[in-house]
Design goal:
With about 550 residues, the protein is α/β, with parallel strands linked by helices. Helix content is about 60%, strand content about 5%.
């Protein structure tokens, strides 16, 4: 009979790693094809559509575009995340397959985080604590439920750190050149990470104890890999979307230097989407985020890491500069996160999502602090580490238990998805009369409805101000949208059956206002009720 205790002690590293993987999977677990998860809602809008619609259209043979009914919406959103989720869409052409792509990326990120830890320590217990902090971080197991490019950014970022820590080789520098461009092709706001990778790689080459010829070869590998992929990417954007990267970067710098920006006289706030003037507003908010305070992360206000871990992490990053063993990693983290914060502080809006890389960076900083303390007080700090681990588990046990219970026992209802199912329930083929499909007025983005629609109805916008308000002709179809009630009346005069779906009004004043306008200017009759009356469908007719 196998001695379990001896087996665990003999394979303690694998036991620790697999235990963390198991916990991570429990926290990640969702069924995207059920009505028990919010994944089918595909929030936040409109970001998710820019990523998910092009691969879906490509599989349908309609090209790699954000388009509806053949009308293409030109955009400059980086395409790499869409390309990464494409293989999963090929397996099953359903947008909810993106969740499985994100879980795959999350597991890759976990492995890369582990490999970085192993570059700085062989202490199994420190690795175990760091991994446990990683897998139980709320945003690291929540983000995979969203179709957002941050899911790809994380493994690319961690791969770059790992390559910068690895022994030098021409291949590594070539890969760093490729990864730096991939990070930019994932999300344009990642340009400071791109610059930081190129800068750190160049500095590493410069300080190498190698011949000048070898250094030249390394620099050529880095620069050729980056520049060749950059030219291909720039050409792709220009040909597909008529987007010029150089002009866009030039426009950003013009705004920063004040050539094309200005200030509001009354509020003394800068006007425009980028300005040095925003730094005094946004920098304190980003600083507060990495200090573990409550922060805006999409619609959430959860600290990106607990405050006591955040403060310890920052101390650890700077403490790592003292010891040669951890100095390289500390320098990498400071430059990567520091440049990202400064860059994002120049934009008009704040969101901690833009510094998503700070989460694993802080956890690595925390690991460095524990290692530095171990180097000085090994025995005493082993006990303190165990006490910290016990404290973290006890203070987070309810949160983690609730999340796992939610994943397996309870549910979050995707009302937006269910509202589309209600449309499908009512609009059968029998509702199509003389080849004219019924028209549904909806506050929801049409791309979301298209994901699940049975195709027996067409769509019109409910409000002037809802998503894609300046692109209505492309997104909703060629119509005159200057006066929506007149447009609705025109459809009725042309013999179309007209309906309005109540779902999607939310707390927005403009959607509720325009919905009430419809009820005021037309006769309305509830023909289907659902979602506790939130998914009600009204048939609209001209007033008698």
């Amino acid at each position: 009979m196998v001695d379990i205790k001896r087996f665990i002690l003999g394979h303690k590293e694998w036991v620790v790693i697999l235990s963390c993987v198991f916990i991570f999977l429990l926290l990640l677990y969702k069924d995207p094809f059920s009505e028990r998860s919010l994944i089918p809602n595909f929030e936040p809008y409109p970001d998710t559509f820019y990523y998910t619609v092009p691969p879906l259209n490509l599989v349908k043979g309609e090209g790699f575009y954000l388009s509806r009914e053949g009308r293409v919406l030109r955009n400059s959103i980086p395409p790499l995340y869409s390309l990464v989720i494409l293989p999963f869409i090929l397996i099953n052409p359903d947008p909810r397959m993106v969740y499985y792509a994100n879980v795959f990326l999350a597991l890759i990120s976990f492995i890369l985080f582990l490999l970085i830890l192993k570059k700085i320590t062989e202490n199994v217990w420190i690795i175990g604590v760091a991994l446990f902090l990683y897998v139980t971080n709320y945003f690291l197991f929540w983000m995979p439920t969203l179709a957002m490019a941050e899911n790809l950014l994380l493994p690319l970022y961690l791969a770059a750190i790992l390559l910068l820590l690895r022994p030098v080789s021409l291949l590594n520098f070539g890969l760093l050149g490729v990864i730096s461009l991939c990070i930019f092709a994932t999300k344009a706001a990642n340009i400071p990470v791109l610059v930081a990778i190129l800068l750190l790689s160049s500095l590493k080459i410069f300080f190498l104890d190698k011949t000048k010829i070898w250094k030249l070869k390394a620099f050529l590998c880095l620069s050729i890999a980056f520049s060749s992929f950059f030219l291909l990417y720039a050409e792709y954007l220009y040909l597909t979307n008529n987007f010029n990267i150089i002009s866009a970067l030039s426009g950003y710098f013009d705004l920063l230097t004040g050539k094309t920006s200005s200030y509001d006289v009354k509020s003394h706030r800068p006007i425009g989407w980028a300005s040095f003037g925003y730094i005094q507003i946004n920098f304190p908010l980003y600083l507060s985020s990495i200090l573990g305070n409550k922060t805006k992360f999409l619609w959430d206000v959860t600290p990106i890491v607990p405050k006591y871990i955040a403060i310890a992490s920052i101390i650890g990053v700077f403490a790592g500069l003292i010891k040669k063993k951890y100095r390289n990693l500390s320098i990498i983290l400071i430059i990567m996160v520091g440049t990202s914060i400064m860059f994002m502080s120049t934009f008009d809006s704040f969101d901690a999502r833009y510094i998503y890389i700070a989460i694993p960076s802080l956890l690595l900083g925390f690991s460095i602090l524990i290692l530095v303390l171990f180097d000085f007080f090994s025995k005493k700090w082993t006990i303190i580490l165990l006490l910290f681990f016990a404290f973290y588990i006890s203070s987070n046990m309810i949160r983690l238990k609730s999340q796992i219970s939610l994943n397996f026992k309870y549910s979050e209802t995707p009302w937006a998805y269910i509202s589309v199912l209600k449309l499908n329930e009512y609009f059968t083929k029998e509702k199509i009369i003389n080849g004219k499909r019924p028209v549904v007025i909806s506050a929801l983005p049409p791309y979301l409805i298209d994901f699940y629609s049975n195709g027996n109805y067409t769509l019109l916008p409910l409000s002037y101000e809802q998503e894609f308000r300046s692109l209505k002709d492309i997104v909703w179809g060629p119509n005159d949208y200057s006066n929506l009630p007149i447009l609705y009346a025109k459809y009725l005069h042309d013999g179309y059956d007209l309906y309005v779906s109540k779902y999607g009004l939310g707390s927005e004043s403009y959607t509720n206002r325009d919905f009430n306008t419809i009820l005021k200017e037309f006769d309305a009759e509830v023909v289907l009720s659902g979602c506790y009356k939130q998914c009600d469908i009204y048939k609209i007719t001209l007033k008698k």
